[in-house]
Specification:
By secondary structure, the chain is α/β, with parallel strands linked by helices. The chain has two domains: 1-83 and 173-261, Rossmann fold, CATH 3.40.50; 93-172, no CATH class. It is built from nine helices and ten strands. The protein has a six-stranded mixed β-sheet, sandwiched between helices. It has a four-stranded antiparallel β-sheet with strand order 2-1-4-5, covered by helices on one side. α6 links the parallel β7 (175-179) and β8 (207-211). The chain is globular. The two termini are 30 Å apart.
Length: 261
């Protein structure tokens, strides 16, 4: 049987902040086309891992490979151009700008025109129309066309989460990092989000790695899960393996999560 193609790989990644080791010799491979999860207690190093992948931090040691290419230490805009996009635990929309304008910000990153392009009025107008049309098409595909002209900050919380994902998708990624996408959602919104994530993975041909505390979401959509504590991986496997792992139950899930077993 052929091994699945690896989309993203961390190789002995370590990140220190002074005397604190936030990520400690962490290695894992995310297979292409999958939805995978990274879970663990608060302060375990999960968001630091995302910051290493997306270029906000540089590893103290170790490597990060994307589709076989070493991207270690590349700045965020270069990482994004290579095909990795992310959302944030705390929503970072431009709240006074419209939904459409927020998505256009992401679409602009994919324009590859020369520096002099914007000073030629006809060409600049043509480029802006392309960006506008792409952003509007994304809003339609994600069910947000009816709020295209509404200020992002006026949208319901769940719609703001979708809009942030739409902006990330506007960069035309192949790999998407979702940092606690279900944070602050009620059970109905979380269920809708699960279907939404599965749909965008298929519709946009994505590989997705998510951080999430909502175990219903993690267990419901992730084919493989890594559990980190103190920056180290203490367990990995599918949902059944994780929910029944005594070390994971003790360190993170707690006995109440046995209801998912």
């Amino acid at each position: 049987m052929n091994q699945p193609t690896t989309s993203l790989e961390l190789v002995n990644a370590t990140r220190r902040f002074g005397g604190i080791v936030a990520v400690n010799d962490l290695s894992f491979k995310v297979p292409q086309g999958t939805i995978c999860g990274l879970i663990g207690p608060n302060g375990a190093g999960k968001t630091t891992v995302f910051n290493l992948i997306s270029g906000f931090y540089t590893p103290t040691s170790g490597k990060i490979l994307f589709e076989g290419e070493d991207i270690t230490g590349n700045p965020p805009h270069i990482v994004c151009r290579k095909g990795i996009a992310r959302t944030f635990q705390n929503i970072r929309l431009f709240s006074s700008a419209s939904s459409l304008q927020n998505v256009m910000v992401g679409a602009h990153l994919r324009q590859k025109n020369p520096w002099w392009f914007p000073i030629v009025p006809f060409l600049a107008d043509k480029e802006e129309k392309m960006v506008h049309d792409r952003a509007h098409t994304l809003l339609e595909r994600l069910g947000l066309a009816d709020v295209a002209n509404a200020p992002a900050g006026s949208l319901p919380y769940g719609a703001q989460r979708r809009l942030e994902i739409a902006r990330a998708l506007a960069t035309n990624p192949r790999f998407l990092l979702l940092d606690e996408p279900a944070a602050g959602m009620n059970p109905h919104e979380s269920s809708d989000l699960m279907e939404f994530i599965k749909n965008i993975r298929a519709d946009f041909d994505l590989t997705i790695l998510l951080i999430e505390h909502d175990m219903k979401v993690v267990m419901g959509i992730c084919s493989h899960i890594w559990v980190v504590e103190y920056g180290q991986c203490i367990a990995e496997g599918d949902a059944d393996a994780i929910r029944n792992n005594p070390k994971v139950i003790e360190a993170y899930l707690g006995e109440e999560y046995l209801q998912y077993a």
